[in-house]
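Subject: design request, 570 residues
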């Protein structure tokens, strides 16, 4: 009996402990569930608060951008994100879709003057065109607008704008933010060429002005190109006033050009090295390449040359066992003479000398360029320019007068055709017939030593006489067909004349803008052709400028006629 009661109590105690344990576990689970529910509610509240805050920040940013757009756009708000595509053009004017025209017209933007836009790249993941320091910031520049003919959703960028927005790499889908802005007129610009030689261009300020006419805006850190014939110079915008982006339309800008950054662009392009009279410069030129030098003739030196008391000697001395060179000289504005374009040249084998005297009609005071062309192999040379006094002129004239035929009994030698005293004619003819040979080529008649006769040859095309070793170079230089960029194929002498006076691609100095430009074909206007204006000058001269006397706007090409007809000024 006692045993059964004890077992019943034990069983009851065990059940009570189990019930208490289950109750404690249930309370613990309920407590944890409440804590988890509390945490979830707090997380939901925090996420809701963050979203509300982000939405408020986004709305604030949009409001700020709208205010900024209204401010920079002077009350006009225009903003688009468009895909960029390349288009042809030489300035900074872009092409926009027709819908942009309607949106701008609705806000009377065209009544505010020229349209200007700020262009910014949209950062995309995987794009490598941004520098690490500028990630998330993107690149930007400014532009004008050329026309509204682009496809919907696209913007056409000319090479200048494209290069400034995507200088290194282009993303798969180049997106551009286009925002209308108002820009002040520029008053000052500091530019830096990215290669040496730009300051050597004649009247480089006029060349720069011509290039800037194709632009509507300038922005700091932009790089734009200046073309001079076949040469291309890049200039970086370092500083602008009154702001970092300005308009260059209908304004006078003070321009400072600082020294070239020689580390920006390592090239072997043409550079003029100065030559001083009486001082030689050493150099090396490879086959098919040029080395260029320049020298100047001042007024005092030119007076001596014009009077016949002096002459200019340009001399090149090649080192022994070196290659061979040619020398070309031109007067500025042709600053880089070539095989096709030059005024003086020498093609002698080895060392060579060019004499420039008052007999040369093209010679006058000014700056000249010397081009050393590597004709064969690598040549080491010394080049020098000297002013030589023509003191031997009188002596030479006296020697010539003293060597006039003497009044004596002479007989013509049957072999060399020289007049020999009759008392020695027999001995002379015997000696002359054994040692001298007369060239039988028509029109030549040069008397040669027998051992020299085998090396005396005539060009089969121009019939000039040469040493046999010079014939290969003569044929290559003077008779090898040359191809002009305009499509004509001529030999050297004809090519020089063609590119100096006829070729539509030749460079001429425009009488209106002062720039070196391609001549082009004849002017379309008959009156312009009668004035001798080229195609470029006909268009350039159509620009107007105020008359100095009456202030009336007159076309530049009509200014002389206006001054004579209206103001009786020559």
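Subject: RE: design request

Done. Sequence follows.
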């Amino acid at each position: 009996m006692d045993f059964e009661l004890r077992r019943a109590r034990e069983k009851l105690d065990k059940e009570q402990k189990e019930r208490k344990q289950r109750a404690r576990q249930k309370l613990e689970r309920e407590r944890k569930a409440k804590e988890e529910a509390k945490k979830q509610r707090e997380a939901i509240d925090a996420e809701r608060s963050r979203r509300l805050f982000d939405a408020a920040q986004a709305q604030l940013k949009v409001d700020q951008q709208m205010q900024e757009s209204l401010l920079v756009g002077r009350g006009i708000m225009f903003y688009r994100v468009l895909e960029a595509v390349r288009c042809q053009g030489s300035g900074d004017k872009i092409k926009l879709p027709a819908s942009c025209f309607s949106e701008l017209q609705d806000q009377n933007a065209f009544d505010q003057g020229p349209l200007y836009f700020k262009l910014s790249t949209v950062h995309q993941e995987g794009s490598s065109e941004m520098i690490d320091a500028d990630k998330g910031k993107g690149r930007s520049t400014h532009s004008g607008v050329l026309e509204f003919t682009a496809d919907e959703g696209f913007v056409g960028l000319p090479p200048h704008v494209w290069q400034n927005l995507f200088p290194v790499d282009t993303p798969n889908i180049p997106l551009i933010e286009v925002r209308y802005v108002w820009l002040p007129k520029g008053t000052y610009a500091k530019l830096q060429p990215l290669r040496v030689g730009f300051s050597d261009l004649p009247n480089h300020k006029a060349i720069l002005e011509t290039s800037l006419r194709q632009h509507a805006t300038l922005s700091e850190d932009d790089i734009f190109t200046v073309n001079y014939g076949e040469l291309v110079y890049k200039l970086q915008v370092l500083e602008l006033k009154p702001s970092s982006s300005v308009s260059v339309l209908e304004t006078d800008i003070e321009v400072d050009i600082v020294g070239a950054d020689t580390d920006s662009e390592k090239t072997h392009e043409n550079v003029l090295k100065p030559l001083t009279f009486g001082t030689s410069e050493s150099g090396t030129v490879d086959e098919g390449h040029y080395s260029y030098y320049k020298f100047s003739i001042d007024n005092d030196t030119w007076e001596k040359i014009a009077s016949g008391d002096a002459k200019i000697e340009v001399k090149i001395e090649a080192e022994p066992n070196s290659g061979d060179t040619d020398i070309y000289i031109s007067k500025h504005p042709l600053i880089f003479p070539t095989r096709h374009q030059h005024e003086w040249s020498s093609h002698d084998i080895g060392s060579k000398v060019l004499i420039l005297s008052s007999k040369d009609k093209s010679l006058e005071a000014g700056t000249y360029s010397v081009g050393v062309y590597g004709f064969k192999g690598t040549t080491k040379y010394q080049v020098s320019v000297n002013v030589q006094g023509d003191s031997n002129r009188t002596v030479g004239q006296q020697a010539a007068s003293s060597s006039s035929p003497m009044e004596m009994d002479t007989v013509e030698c049957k072999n060399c055709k020289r007049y020999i005293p009759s008392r020695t004619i027999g001995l002379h003819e015997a000696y002359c017939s054994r040692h001298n040979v007369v060239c039988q080529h028509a029109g030549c008649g040069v008397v040669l030593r027998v051992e020299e006769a085998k090396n005396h040859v005539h060009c089969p095309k121009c019939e000039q006489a040469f040493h046999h070793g010079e014939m290969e170079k003569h044929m290559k230089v003077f008779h090898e067909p040359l191809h002009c960029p305009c499509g004509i194929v001529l030999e050297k002498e004809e090519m020089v004349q063609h590119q100096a006076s006829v070729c539509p691609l030749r460079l001429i100095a425009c009488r209106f803008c002062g720039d070196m430009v391609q001549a082009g074909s004849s002017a379309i206007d008959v009156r312009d052709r009668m004035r001798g204006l080229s195609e470029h000058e006909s268009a350039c001269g159509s620009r107007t400028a105020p008359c100095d006397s009456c202030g009336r706007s007159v076309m530049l090409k009509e200014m002389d006629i206006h001054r004579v007809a209206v103001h009786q000024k020559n």
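The mean pLDDT is 83.
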